[in-house]
Amino acid sequence: MSTRPPRRRVVAAGLAASASALLGSCAMGGAGGADGGPRELGGEGEDDGSEGKGGHRLTGEITVWSWDVAATAMKRLRGAFEERHPGVSVDVVDIGYDNAYDKITVGLRGGTGLPDVLTMEGSYLPRYTANFPGGFYDLVRRGGRYRGDFDRAAWRTVTGGAGRERIFGIPWDIGPCALYYRTDHLRAAGVDPKSLRTWGDYVRVGVRVKEATGHKLLVHDPTGPGMFPMLLQQQGQSAFLGGRIALETPAAVRALTLMKRLAEKGLIAYEKNWDGLVTATKEGKVSTNPIAAWWTGTLTDEMPELKGKFGVVPLPGFTADGVRTSNIGGSTLCIPAQSEQAQAAWEFIRFVLTDRANQVAMLKREGLFPAHLPALDDPYLSERQEYFGGQRANAVFARLARTIPPVEYTKDDAKERDIATSAVNGVLLHGKDPRASLVSAAERLADATGRKRVA
Fold this sequence. Notes:
- The chain is α/β, with parallel strands linked by helices.
- Helix 1 runs parallel beside helix 3, helix 2 packs antiparallel against helix 14 and helix 16 packs antiparallel against helix 17 (434-449).
- It has 17 helices and 13 strands.
- The two termini are 36 Å apart.
């Protein structure tokens, strides 16, 4: 999500450990079908009272769990939904982020206690559906017709199942990545931001800016893997390919070698956690932030005094004609199999996430950048933004959002993150060899998960 939720994404690194400990022995639980697989929500046209022709056949109360601005958005929209479906009432509960995944895991393990609609970060959903195959409704018969309306990378996070497509949720927001830059820093160094076409250009410009201004180029948080996952996705992969460990592929070596070059040139400011990133940016310690669209909300909320000093360009590519974006963050809405109001829950999800006007309103008011492609064509995204000196920054992200490479997520992502963090920091902080470090990391992850490595 965006605006303030990036703070909770940093918290997610710590949550991954506690949630993954709970996930470790939990392929049971939920409230799935008789075969232990997911329950299916009936298709449209069946006599299940779901479409309602104005909503009169839908009755009852649904409970929604979410947090922060996502909860705010749904509280704002529920009134219009209840007017359309007067027999349904919606209770949106802000459960807070700090313990959200522990609550979700406990509810899935026990098979009780979860709401009718659940917010789940996109990168987390595959982890949960793999560990709890009967824990969520399969929405393929309802949601399948919307697959072309959503960003491909976000859609990948909600699908799964062996031998057939399943849809375990609908994408909400995404985090298309670009390069935020300080216009005054680059101007002082005589740098045209449009010249930042490749990561090689980025390193060379970083040296030039540092020599001219004394400012470093970017922040690395040593409590996580930093930009390594972003660089992997930019090249079309995650740490896994076809279920195998892909930490020693050419793409992975390229990513970590780039990070080492940045470290060797003295272009990295090491700052821990979210507050360190915000403070370093606010104080002008760094000249760029390669980060997602939700960073705009952080800039405007926490650094209003820097209005007019930032611009946005696509990420540098590994080649001049390569992919110029990636993704960080994003979320989905799904229906736990425990829900006894699944039809009404689906209609609420459909109302919030497949309506262009609602999606654009959530971008305007809550800063949630849509995964819904029709919303990206709205004139609002082409408006000039005063904070960026009149640049149409949203239009940059709207163009990039259509080119985010889909990648693979697994139930072992939390283990991989810990191991990748160790490998990255060994290279950046202790000068280790990228390739050797990644080979060692792949070996450790194979031992921890029993997975094979990509040849």
